[in-house]
């Protein structure tokens, strides 16, 4: 009985393939007729090949992502750390310094921008997206609208931004963006509740489908926050649950796995746990999670740094790349690439060169870690200082 109905379903789904029922024009979604179920629909239409190419280019050997997509409020915190006011000229000066670093493209394959930067030009009048393109760096864009409290949960949050996302994404594509980022969070000390995990996974999946439909490779980022005193085993347990739901809903939304990138947290003990874990232990747990939950069709895993020190984040990445992986395992760091740069810059024009040198040092170290060839020998003491902030908002 079961196999007979399965055969019937298979027959009807292959009919759907044969009928070529989905619309191939840019930006239009596939449409199913009222109550038929199809198992073969792909939502990204004619962007599929381009999405796969984009994802491959970001996930290219020895390269990773520079994340500078801080909202204006968070950018203000970065600037305040060196005594600067949160003004547009100051944000521009800082981001221009980062993106115009000579030789950056050797180590950096993509840059995640905040909307302000995507539409900005340098003080010499060159569009930021062109600065990136010239270095073979793919421009990306943060598309989520941030976290707000999730009613009915245990003091948890959900991520806003789906309303109007399709039209915004189409505009970002026109402006030169080729990938997108949506960061939602899961808190271990708050539960996490089944509701919060489901909401995070569903939101990421809807965003991913909409991004692909508009030519943007979605970076899927359910950040499992470092906050808490839990063990590394507890983090693994929660991460497995989160990623199983994320992939369930990605599949339900017909997201093309070859055209996405992931941005997970590494599997570590909570920041306030009594014992620290070594890079080898973090690599062992994190790779266990990835092997159990991430299909090899996914081209790239681009980790966030989450408050680890610059050197810690690099050492952990290196430990994961000592043996070959089915995916490109790399970085998409904000704090762990920017900390030394800010300290070197201090907002002074005469320090721009030194700050760019600091960025190149970090970018090269992470490039080596992507290839499993990094050693922390000779690293500055500053780069070893943790950046964890309890209850950090991005
Ligand atoms: P961090 O590397 O600072 O955790 O940044 C995470 C992020 O989502 C940036 O895009």
From TrEMBL:
It holds the Pfam family Glycolytic. Keywords: Chloroplast, Glycolysis, Lyase, Plastid, Schiff base. It is an enzyme of class 4 (lyase). Gene3D superfamilies: Aldolase class I (3.20.20.70). One of its GO terms (molecular function) is fructose-bisphosphate aldolase activity. GO terms for biological process: glycolytic process. Pathway: Carbohydrate degradation; glycolysis; D-glyceraldehyde 3-phosphate and glycerone phosphate from D-glucose: step 4/4. One of its GO terms (cellular component) is chloroplast. The keyword Electron transport does not apply. Its EC number is 4.1.2.13. It catalyses: beta-D-fructose 1,6-bisphosphate = D-glyceraldehyde 3-phosphate + dihydroxyacetone phosphate. Its main location: plastid. It is found in: Plastid, Chloroplast. CDD domains: FBP_aldolase_I_a. Belongs to the class I fructose-bisphosphate aldolase family. This is Fructose-bisphosphate aldolase. It comes from Aquilegia coerulea. The lineage of its organism: Eukaryota, Viridiplantae, Streptophyta, Embryophyta, Tracheophyta.
């Amino acid at each position: 009985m079961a196999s007979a109905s399965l055969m019937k379903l298979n027959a009807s789904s292959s009919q759907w393939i044969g009928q070529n029922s989905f619309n191939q024009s840019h930006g239009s979604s596939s449409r199913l007729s009222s109550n038929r179920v199809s198992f073969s629909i792909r939502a990204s239409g004619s962007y599929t090949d381009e999405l796969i190419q984009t994802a491959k280019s970001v996930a290219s050997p020895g390269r990773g992502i520079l994340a500078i997509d801080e909202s204006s409020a968070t950018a203000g915190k970065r600037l305040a750390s060196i005594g600067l006011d949160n003004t547009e000229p100051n944000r521009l000066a800082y981001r221009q310094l980062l993106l115009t670093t000579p030789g950056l493209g050797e180590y950096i394959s993509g840059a995640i921008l905040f909307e302000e930067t995507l539409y900005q030009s340098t003080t010499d009048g060159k569009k930021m997206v062109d600065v990136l393109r010239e270095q073979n760096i793919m421009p990306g864009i943060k598309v989520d609208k941030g976290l707000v409290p999730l009613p009915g949960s245990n003091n948890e949050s959900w991520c806003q931004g789906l309303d109007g996302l399709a039209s915004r994404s189409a505009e970002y594509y026109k402006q030169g963006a080729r990938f997108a980022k949506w960061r939602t969070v899961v808190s271990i000390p708050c539960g996490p509740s089944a509701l919060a995990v489901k909401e995070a996974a569903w939101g990421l999946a809807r965003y991913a489908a909409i991004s692909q439909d508009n030519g943007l490779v979605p970076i899927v980022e359910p950040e499992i926050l470092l906050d808490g005193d839990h063990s590394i085993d507890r983090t693994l347990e929660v991460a497995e649950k989160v990623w199983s739901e994320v992939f369930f809903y990605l599949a339900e939304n017909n997201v093309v796995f070859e055209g996405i990138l992931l941005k997970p947290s590494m599997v570590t003990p909570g920041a306030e746990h009594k014992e620290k874990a070594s890079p080898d232990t973090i690599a062992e747990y994190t790779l266990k999670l990835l092997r159990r939950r991430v299909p090899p069709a996914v081209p790239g895993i681009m980790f966030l740094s989450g408050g680890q020190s610059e050197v810690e984040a690099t050492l952990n990445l290196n430990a994961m790349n000592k043996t070959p992986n089915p995916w490109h395992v790399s970085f998409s760091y904000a704090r762990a690439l920017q900390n030394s740069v800010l300290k070197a810059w201090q907002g002074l024009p005469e320090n721009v060169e030194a700050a760019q040198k600091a960025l190149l040092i970090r970018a090269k170290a992470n490039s080596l870690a992507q290839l499993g060839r990094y050693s922390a020998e000779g690293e500055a003491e500053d780069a070893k200082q943790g950046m964890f902030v309890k209850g950090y908002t991005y």
